[in-house]
């Protein structure tokens, strides 16, 4: 009798079963709640010492479970529609020949220096995440970097690895990120942007950890393409380049300038006017119209290309929606505060160094349930800040532990809609990404733990 060979399920199937596991957890874990109060900005924060187990228990039903799926799609609609817009606009830009011309120039510059490419991309994305909280803005770069890496005898995993490593490390070592640093420091009642010197100094060493991990894998694939984790995976929306790359023309430069201008306007709006994916999508729609005009692409051709490009990302949109459903089921089941309380209690029984590492561990676990950085800060920082006072961990170290726990696990958790969007754009199944990224997460977690222990010992505050 031939043994049955195990096959990893499709990523969508995997996420669906994680949703089921979340619902089962709501039947087992006691329901409980902290009292909450409103901040000056209108957000709810928990009140320490007020946790109570619910007197009456309610159970989610199978009907509630299936209702959660369309509700999750509605909750994730901003990033889902942004993905459709990006897919369509990039298809129009591709029709202008700009992407192929740009790839040709990048190959001339980095074709024999892949390590320099990996460092440059990872560092720039880490710096942007650290400074302005960039994340979803990276999605438009995925297909371009995938095509570039494949032309350099690497694969899609390398391209996505550069982006996600930069994103996760940038959030973990953020200095001015308004979504995590500003919110967490405000709740912990420490001066805004204080302690930035240490995080700026640590950004490059942590980036080098990420670069080393991605480069080792890239070199292995270049030496032996059969070692690729995604060699058999078809990438949606990626057209293989045949023949020589076109020369960079004036039209291509105009389109490229429009792309940079759209991104610059969007980042400015995000930083100073509270914009996010809706406004970012509008900027890229304007870019698509601009590209069609300067490249003289007919309206019918634009429509055809746009529909085809958006259609290529249907699977990615489905992954994002179901991923959001995992956290939604846990919220409906009222077990989030119970998990927060259970994780925080043991921290009061250990010394300050171990407590700091415990905070990092706790924040890493909770990021699975609350993938929003600011949302996690509102739930956990009101508890962690006074708890740190009791065990001898300064509030600055507490904020740093929160940042690392949020940022590093952003690279790994399937409930992170931005991660699932990037993976979907790159055509990378989640199980293969997990195999690639878990060792990197463990390296960053170990380095982060060491930093926290030293920070407690030297009185970082």
Summarize the structure.
With 461 residues, the chain is mainly alpha-helical. Helices cover 69% and strands 2% of the residues. Helix 1 (11-28) runs parallel beside helix 13, helix 5 runs parallel beside helix 7 (156-172) and helix 8 (181-188) packs parallel to helix 16 (373-391).
Describe this structure in words.
- Helix 1 runs parallel beside helix 13 (314-332) and helix 8 (181-188) packs parallel to helix 16.
- The relative contact order is 0.17.
- The model has no long low-confidence stretch (mean pLDDT 89).
- With 461 residues, this protein is mainly alpha-helical.
- It has helices at 11-28, 62-75, 77-95, 98-110, 114-132, 142-151, 156-172, 181-188, 196-223, 250-273, 277-294, 299-311, 314-332, 336-344, 352-369, 373-391, 395-409, 417-426, 430-458, and strands at 32-33, 36-38, 44-46, 52-53.
- It contains 19 helices and 4 strands.
Instruction: Tell me, briefly, the overall form.
Output: globular
Structural class: mainly alpha
Computed CA radius of gyration, to the nearest angstrom: 23 Å
DSSP strand content: under 5%
What are the segments in which pLDDT stays under 50 over at least 5 consecutive residues?
Answer: none
The total strand number stands at 4
Q: Give the rounded overall mean pLDDT.
A: 89
Largest sheet: 2 strands, antiparallel
Strand order of the largest sheet: 1-4
Distance between the termini: 65 Å
Number of helices: 19
The ordered string of helix (H) and strand (E) elements is HEEEEHHHHHHHHHHHHHHHHHH
Helix content estimate:
55-70%
List keywords for this structure.
two-stranded antiparallel sheet; mainly alpha; 19 helices; single chain; 461 residues; 2% strand; two-stranded antiparallel ribbon; globular
């Amino acid at each position: 009798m031939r043994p049955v060979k195990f096959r990893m399920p499709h990523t969508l199937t995997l996420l669906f079963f994680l949703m089921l596991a979340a619902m089962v957890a709501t039947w087992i874990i006691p329901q409980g709640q902290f009292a909450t109060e409103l901040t000056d900005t209108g957000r709810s924060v928990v009140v320490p010492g007020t946790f109570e187990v619910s007197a009456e228990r309610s159970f989610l039903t199978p009907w509630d479970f299936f209702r959660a799926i369309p509700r999750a799609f509605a909750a994730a609609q901003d990033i889902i529609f942004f993905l459709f817009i990006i897919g369509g606009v990039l298809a129009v830009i591709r029709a202008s020949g700009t992407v192929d011309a740009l790839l040709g120039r990048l190959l001339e510059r980095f074709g024999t220096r892949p390590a320099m490419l990996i460092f440059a991309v990872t560092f720039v994305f880490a710096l942007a995440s650290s400074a302005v909280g960039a994340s979803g803005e990276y999605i438009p770069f995925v297909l371009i970097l995938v095509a570039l890496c494949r032309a350099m005898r690497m694969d899609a995993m390398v391209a996505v690895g550069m982006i996600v490593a930069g994103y996760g490390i940038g959030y973990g070592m953020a200095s001015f990120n308004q979504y995590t640093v500003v919110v967490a420091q405000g709740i912990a009642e420490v001066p805004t942007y204080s302690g930035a010197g240490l995080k700026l100094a640590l950004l490059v060493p942590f980036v080098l950890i990420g670069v080393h991990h991605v480069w080792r894998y890239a070199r292995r694939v270049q030496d032996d393409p059969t070692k690729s984790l995604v060699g058999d995976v078809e990438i949606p929306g990626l057209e293989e380049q045949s023949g020589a790359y076109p020369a960079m023309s004036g039209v291509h430069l105009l389109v490229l300038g429009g792309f940079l201008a759209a991104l610059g306007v969007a980042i400015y709006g995000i930083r100073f006017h509270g914009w996010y994916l809706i406004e970012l999508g509008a900027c890229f729609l304007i870019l698509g119209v601009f590209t069609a005009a300067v490249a003289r692409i007919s309206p019918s051709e634009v429509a055809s290309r746009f529909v085809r490009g958006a259609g290529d990302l249907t699977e990615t949109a489905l992954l994002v929606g179901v991923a959001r459903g995992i956290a939604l089921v846990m919220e409906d089941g009222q077990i989030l505060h119970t998990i927060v309380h259970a994780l925080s209690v043991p921290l009061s029984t250990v010394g300050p160094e171990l407590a700091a590492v415990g905070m990092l561990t706790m924040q890493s676990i909770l990021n699975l349930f609350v993938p929003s950085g600011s949302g996690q800060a509102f739930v956990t920082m009101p508890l962690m800040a006074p708890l740190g006072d009791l065990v001898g961990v300064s509030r600055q170290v507490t904020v740093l532990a929160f940042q690392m726990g949020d940022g590093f696990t952003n690279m790994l958790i399937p409930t992170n809609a931005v991660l699932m969007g990037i993976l979907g754009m790159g055509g990378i199944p989640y199980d293969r990404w997990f195999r690639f990224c878990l060792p990197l997460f463990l390296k960053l977690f170990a380095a982060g733990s060491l930093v926290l222990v030293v920070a407690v010992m030297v009185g970082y505050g």
